[in-house]
Design goal:
This is GPI-anchored cell wall organization protein Ecm33. The chain is mainly β. It is built from four helices and 32 strands. The strands form seven sheets. The protein has a 16-stranded parallel sheet that branches. A four-stranded parallel sheet has the order 21-24-27-30, with no helix packed on it. A three-stranded parallel sheet has the order 3-6-8. Strand 31, helix 3 and strand 32 form a beta-alpha-beta unit. It starts with a helix and ends with a helix.
């Protein structure tokens, strides 16, 4: 055997070993701390990485800068801390799911993932994403004890779901564009939500928030739903058109509602059971509602001075006296500017939605079939927002 061969063979064997450590055609499962250490020679790991359900204690995957597949840890009861001091990018999904005793997740250089899913992490209070994750197609944070989302600062994305995080007090990102859906629901009742740069969105849902601020929102191709929030005022000062439905329901403290530039809602418009909202006068430019217009609650004043076309049903019911408003809307109905079923009545003991209320002089059922179709379509538009998060 030549001296070259004797020298080359050990190098080839070493290179083959390193290559084997740094790639896997399927999923490499880390069974213990030594397995994590074994891939420390890799700057890039090609394939998927997972941590076995029985792994306990601390796992550090240091030195790795990039994972070309997924990094998934799921259904683990023993893992205490997880980290990767050099990891900058995960081309696939980064998922921490049902890790009951995890108290630390330290990824100080991580900036890019395909998707981030954090779920059922009852002991994780803070994220160690010091460099901030700024690129991800989807973000899902559910059922955690996180007190802050510091470290997640997405600029553009497709989907965001933040739900059932009872200690979360603030949600703020540089987000400017979301192409599918944003849903923030059932977190801490005191959570303050702010997206100061958000200009373009599709579906937006806010539920049980203390405040919601979207001052730059100009384009909304889908629907906007505000349900059971605690804020006293809501404003979308730059929004001109809503491509789906608009629903403001059971926001018990809401007393001031302003959409100063909004001209069209292409599906249904519902303003319902907002206990302290006694004046609806924040839609001064609204001209067209493409579905049903459904308002009920404690209003004493309702004004939509530019409204010229309601393609579905019209319902206004209030405990207050809305005679003046009803006279105006009856004139619209007579001119066929309201295409569907019409009902308008004040001093109602228990106001209800479209299709409720006693028959009276303002009630007209002649076009009920057309109205029902528009109501159904609008409801489907709103319901569709929940479906997009089945990921």
């Amino acid at each position: 055997m030549s001296s070259f061969t004797r020298f080359a063979l050990p190098l080839l064997a070493a290179a083959t070993t390193v290559f084997a450590q740094c790639s896997d055609s399927a999923t490499r499962t880390i069974e213990n701390a030594q397995d994590a250490t074994a891939i420390a020679e890799c700057q890039t790991f090609s394939g998927n990485l997972a941590i076995a359900t029985g792994v306990a204690g601390d796992i550090a995957m240091n030195n790795i800068q990039k994972i070309t597949g997924n990094l998934v840890i799921s259904a683990n009861t023993g893992l205490k801390s997880l980290g990767a001091d050099s990891l900058e990018e995960i081309e696939g999904e980064f998922r921490l799911d049902d890790i009951q005793n995890l108290v630390a997740a330290n990824f100080p250089k991580l900036k890019t993932v395909d998707s981030l899913r954090l779920n059922a992490l009852p002991n994780l209070q803070n994220l160690g994403f010091d460099a901030e994750i700024t690129k991800a197609k989807s973000i899902s944070v559910e059922n955690t004890q996180l007190q802050s989302l510091k470290g997640i600062n997405i600029e553009t994305t497709e989907k965001i779901l933040i739900a059932n995080n009872i200690y979360l007090e603030e949600i703020e990102m540089q987000l400017s564009d979301i192409s599918n859906a944003l849903d923030i629901s059932n977190n801490n009742l005191g959570v303050n939500v702010s997206f100061p740069n958000l200009e373009n969105a599709f579906n937006l849902t806010f539920r049980n928030c203390s405040s919601v601020k979207v001052p730059s929102l100009a384009s909304l191709n889908g629907s906007l739903g505000l349900y059971s929030n605690g804020f006293s005022e809501f404003s979308a000062p730059n929004l001109t058109e809503i491509g789906g439905a608009l629903a403001l329901v059971s926001n018990e403290q809401l007393s001031n509602l302003t959409f100063p530039k909004l001209t069209e809602v292409k599906f249904n418009l519902q303003i319902a059971n907002n206990t302290k909202l006694d004046e609806v006068n924040g839609l001064p430019q609204l001209k067209t509602v493409g579905g049903a217009l459904d308002m009920y609650g404690n209003m004493s004043k309702v004004e939509t001075p530019k409204l010229a076309d309601v393609k579905g049903a019209f319902n206004l019911q209030s405990t207050g006296d809305v005679t003046e408003a009803c006279n105006g809307y009856k004139s619209m109905k007579d001119k066929k500017a309201i295409k569907g079923k019409y009902f308008c009545e004040g001093k109602v003991e228990t106001p209800g939605g479209e299709g409720t209320g006693s028959a009276g002089k303002n009630n007209d059922d002649k076009e009920g079939a057309a109205s029902s179709l528009n109501v159904q379509n609008g409801a489907l538009a709103l319901a569709a927002m929940a479906a997009v998060f089945l990921i």
